[in-house]
Known about the structure:
mainly beta, outer membrane lipoprotein receptor (LolB), chain A, ten-stranded antiparallel sheet, 22 strands, 0% helix, 38% strand, disordered N terminus
Amino acid sequence: MERSTEHGELSVLKPPQFAIKQSPVPPVLPSSWECTALLHPYSPPSTDGVQDTPFFQLCVASISYIEGQILSIQVVGMDGQTWWYKVTQTTTVLSRDEGVTWTDNLDIGWTLPGTEWLTPTQSPTYFATSYLNWMQAQEVDWWKQSVANSNATTWIWFDHSSGLPFRMMFGAPPKNPLVGDQNQLAFFQNFSFTYFPGFSAVENPNVDTWTPPVIPGFQAGNPGGQSLPLWNDHFAMTTFMTPVDSASFPLPTNVFYQWKPDNAYGEATDRAQVTWMSYQYNPTAGYETSVALLFGAPPNGMPAPPNAGDGYIFNQSEILNQGVPTPLVFSCQNIGMGQEPPDWASIPAVQGTIHASVTDNAALSPGNQVNIISVLFPPSDEYEQGRYLWTWYSPFPGSDGSNSRPVTFMESASSIAEGGTSLALADYFDYTVSPNWYPPYLFDVPQKCLVPQKEKP
């Protein structure tokens, strides 16, 4: 990505940009096709036992379709279990032995999809076209559509050249994780996040023979014994941040992070992260930038300086004050949580796990390896077992995985406050390790954030 050299004491990274490259006509899939899929679940299984379903583990699948007749879904979990679903106009059946025997009709809430995954009743909206991340494997068209009776949206990314699906993110999980909503896409809706590394039109799709899914470069588990990522202690990066509420569009974003060691810590800005999210594609927001400012915890045994372990989100625009651009802060919220340390993925409570890796896959990781990692959000009323945050990291050459570059980060089942943005997805572009610690002014807390809580807007 293009980068200017210096701005005062800081290297300036230009956030990624989108382009408008097509007329907004929803893609129509071929009448018959085959694809491979890499599927990320919403959560681990509930605490009352593991159900006979693939929906609680990372899975790969071979999927075939004939319009008006059948959707055949052959699934393999990372534990080696297999499921073969066949969805027709009238039934859904399942084989657990690769097609030797079949269940009676399942009451699972799925309907045979058509060739329009973007449907007029769900208000499909073309947003823009761009690469997905710094690997620049392919340009994709960003589409979203609303979810009935919800403030959520479903995002689908179509390959710009072929018009075929490449990635999908569901903003609203099924009410019951074991079944589905007949108004959403069968099977796929039971996973939060899906990639399609292979998708093609075929005249005679295989719907009758068990064929294990093959994704070039994919390996289940962690056969190389890779380590979880350990962040550098001062770096900057750029991302697209994508919300899952139906009103919002992606935000080009800059991030600055630093975490000084115990012997160099003296004030809250020594451990701090600032994230600037541009609202240039959300003109109805009423402000130009939303800023998340987080401060890390002090070393053990050290008294906490002001703001240590705290965090704020504020909205601002620039105004001219005597001819000088000056930020005007409209509102500020104390979010009650601070900055994560560099070893965040290894904190025992988050149960960081490498589920699989993909090496030099032309669609997913050209020329690179990526490790597919989950960390666990705390339990909630909806997910007493916690829910997954999925992240992909690409180890730098010679690294055991600890020194890695982020590719994507996705929060499953992000909660959606009415009118909120509910940022659920980050796709990463520029990444640079700073040669120097960042200056304290980079992490200045606006005065509006420091007023007593009862006086805050």
